[in-house]
Design brief:
This protein has 193 residues and is an alpha/beta fold. Helix content is 34%, strand content 16%. It has two domains: 125 residues, Rossmann fold; 53 residues, no CATH class. Helix 5 packs parallel to helix 6. The two termini are 43 Å apart.
């Protein structure tokens, strides 16, 4: 799959990421940081395990793959997280919450061409806006300096600053602005929640 997707993306197989190669790194901690570092994710839900149910024996993907699918989908959204399942005679048990999703299909054991085509189309359709230059924070957790610098730049030009808050954690968003709001000379700031 990596070779096929390399035409539209820089592909990193998670097990080859430097984050998972560093001695002393705890795997869960490294895994939880991964959604912040990628724009898209593809999870192959293969027929890896047998699941004994009252309906008989079913083939099922590994639990960790289903967890990782949810982790990335929760952070990146369903349009940027691709589920790849086998087609043809091989069927895997899919969680009922995911059964309504449209997924990419492949023919086991390794014929991924159809899935690669569908994922490539999804990446192209949902790619980020073309940005020529970006000097903002590398993470949403480091926005304070960038936000305040931009406000100060506009204030120096005697321009009004409006901050629209779309964050779920209001205290994390507004706390950095408090530094500027307590300055008596600052009066041209509007905060919209």
């Amino acid at each position: 799959m990596r070779d096929g997707l390399s035409a539209v993306a820089d592909v990193t197989v998670w097990s080859e990421s430097v984050d998972f190669q560093t001695l002393g790194t705890l795997f869960p901690d490294a895994l939880l940081q991964q959604p912040e570092k990628v724009d898209f994710a593809a999870m192959v839900l293969g027929p890896d395990d047998e699941l004994v149910t009252d309906a008989g024996i079913l083939l099922a993907p590994r639990d960790n793959v289903v967890f990782e699918l949810g982790l990335f989908m929760g952070h990146l959204g369903p349009q940027r997280t691709f589920m790849v399942v086998p087609s043809g005679g091989v069927q895997v048990k899919i969680l009922s919450d995911l059964a309504g999703m449209i997924w990419a299909k492949y023919r086991p054991p390794a014929r991924m061409a159809d899935a690669v085509k569908k994922i490539s189309e999804g990446i192209e359709r949902n790619s980020r806006r073309n940005v020529l230059a970006y000097d903002g924070p590398p993470s949403v957790h480091e926005f304070k300096t960038t936000l305040l610098n931009e406000a100060r730049r506009l204030w120096q030009r005697n321009e009004h600053v409006t901050v629209w808050n779309f964050a779920l954690d209001m205290s994390a968003t507004w706390a950095p602005m408090y530094e500027s709001l307590v300055e008596p000379k600052i009066r041209n700031l509007t905060c919209v929640q």
